[in-house]
Amino acid sequence: MRKLTGQSEQNIKAGSLAPNDPTYVYREADKQLLKFLQANNPLNLACYIVGAPQTGKSSLMVNTASKLPKNKYICVVIELKTKVSTLSATLFYFHLLKIICKRIQTNSNQLLRELNNFWQQNLDITPSHKFQAFIKKLLTTISNKKIIVFIDEIQKLTDWQLQESFSNLIKALAVSPEAYQQKLTFILLGTINPTYLLPEINKDISGLKIIKLGNFQGNCPQLLAGIEQVSKNCSIVLQEIFLWTRGQPFLTKSLWDLATKRLRVQNDSEIKTQIEQLVSSEFLQPGSHSALQYHCQSIENLFIRGDPDRIDSKVYALNLYEKILRNSAGSEIRDRNLGQGDLLISGLVAKYDNIIKVANPIYQEIFNQQWVEQTKQLVIQSRCYMASPKIFDRDVFLLIDQSGSMVRKDQDTGNKIRWKFLPEPLEGHVYRILNETGLDGQKICEEIVATCFSPNRVNKKTAYITSPSQIETFFIENQPATSTYLVPTLEHLLSQWFATRNQRGGFFIIYTDGQIDDRDEFVKLIESTCRKLNNQDELKIVIIGIGSDIDPRFYIQLDQNTRAFKDAKGLDCNIIVFDLLNEVEDIIDLLDRQLEDPEAGMPMWAKEQYPELFS
User: Fold this and answer.
1) Which of 134, 406, 494, 524 is most buried, with most CB under 10 Å away?
2) Domain-by-domain residue ranges, the chain?
3) What are phi and psi of 463, to 5 degrees?
């Protein structure tokens, strides 16, 4: 197994520019990072540098480390680089400490022996807690200096499933009353959405900062000098390069390098044509130079590799990119637009004012419609779990409990009122339902019908949901009301589905925070509905409980079909599925579980909490 590779600031990481390289382009991120490190703020514990592949993160790291006075700072540069798919927390934190020990002292043998002894003598302590305890000891040995730990390729932590452990370590250090925390700062660099690494970075912890590494801007005086031999009008040449790259660092430096070596412009009118020919021959033709192929592959890898639990979010991001490709005007930025973060971190798109567009014309040609379709299939095929084919081609209805009790708060909802808590997980459910895709491109549905239930009458006010971003508006437009009558609205929607289904199956998903007021009528409705079905796979009525007031027993027994409902053929008909909102890890798994094996589909928490119902 390859270990983490540690370097001093003098050792230049492969692919990065040397300190003080004359072609290094300074950006706003350089100023922000240096200011963060040199600030006299004891809470400056961690800074996350986020950027798309090959935007200069490593060069920023090396250049910044070289500018920090050695009498004040000890810089530890670490690259998480290993080809194995897993790495234990023990190895990660142990090797992290070993690298820091070697940087603190030239002759570090004594420190390393102490580390080995400490690690072996505390086998009952978790690796992250051992790291925290030993780093405290190390920080007492560096007098008035401060340790800056640069960790590059931080997205590897998600591959190793260590992001939660590392996030908890940062949080623990941030709230520690110990003064030693003032001597330690982490600089994390990588191509990962910050919400996947430190999901609460802006909410719970002070002393943490996110710096976005943007594209090159303006005239870039560092690049103008190299074009002097190409044309007397260097700014026009650079301007034409920027029209193709929009300042994307790798593309800009690559096209700039090609221009300095190959172009000799006699007349300014030739500049546009010659740059266009250079792009066409070197960037857009099959067999482009290897550096470009590597660059494009690194972007594609963000979608086809990594955490299998994020496969569906990747598919959603690709679907969003496909829409942006088709719309030359771009897509309006929405804070809650799922997939937007993944797309921005890939570099395929960029923000222009309040619009997201394809980042540059070169990407527009390379990452085209054909690439989207091929990549989407690769992502889908990499999924470890595939839903049953029975789940596809259905009408989906959401029924939201609008009763007055939805204004109550629960510990399970983070002391938010239920009506404010529900939209976020519901967005995730809607996203999964709309974007679940089979190997042959099958979809569950293209839109979801959403409505509320509360008074003892039919609620005919419905919304047609085609994007998770509509959920927030739905909850704003509807507010908690009075009682909990489900049957009138459910019966109305069931009648619509039976009348228009055309061989399509149905999912009715009900979110409720308590016992419904028309329980007996509900049981009768389920019984009569079953008698209209040819089999139990045609329809599933899914009940998801929220809050502390709900009594699961009634719903569990319906899920078990203890009342022995029958279909039109007289066969057992189990169409009720029940679970608790905070227990639902994957809505697709919940919808799928009783399609294949209803008896085996009961949630484990129900069997543990109510064993008497399963005897």
Assistant:
1) 406
2) 5-212, 221-285, 310-381, 389-613
3) -125, 145
H-assigned helices in 453-518: 470-477, 487-500
Q: For 152-199, write each residue's pLDDT tens digit.
A: 989 888 888 888 889 888 888 887 767 666 789 999 998 887 766 665
Structure confidence by residue, pLDDT tens digits, 155-168 = 888 888 888 889 88
Domain 5-212 matches domain 389-613 at the CATH topology level: yes
Distance (Å, whole) CA 329 – CA 350: 13
**Residue 577 contacts residue 587 (beta carbons within 8 Å):** no
CA pair distance 596, 583, nearest whole angstrom? 20
Cross-strand bridge partners of residue 541:
508, 576
- The answer to whether the CB of 395 falls within 8 A of the CB of 505 is yes
pLDDT at position 4: 46
Say if domain 389-613 classifies as CATH 3.30.1440.10: no
User: If we measure between CA atoms, which residue out of 51, 66, 55 comes closest to residue 7?
Assistant: 66
Beta pairing, strands 355-358 & 349-352:
antiparallel
- C-alpha distances out from residue 463 to 87, 398, 407, 467, 536, Å: 46, 10, 22, 11, 27
User: Can you read off the two tokens belonging to residue 297?
Assistant: 């592959």
Give the tens place of pLDDT for each residue, 117-151: 999 998 889 999 999 999 988 888 888 888 999 99
- Homologous superfamily assigned to 5-212: P-loop containing nucleotide triphosphate hydrolases (3.40.50.300)
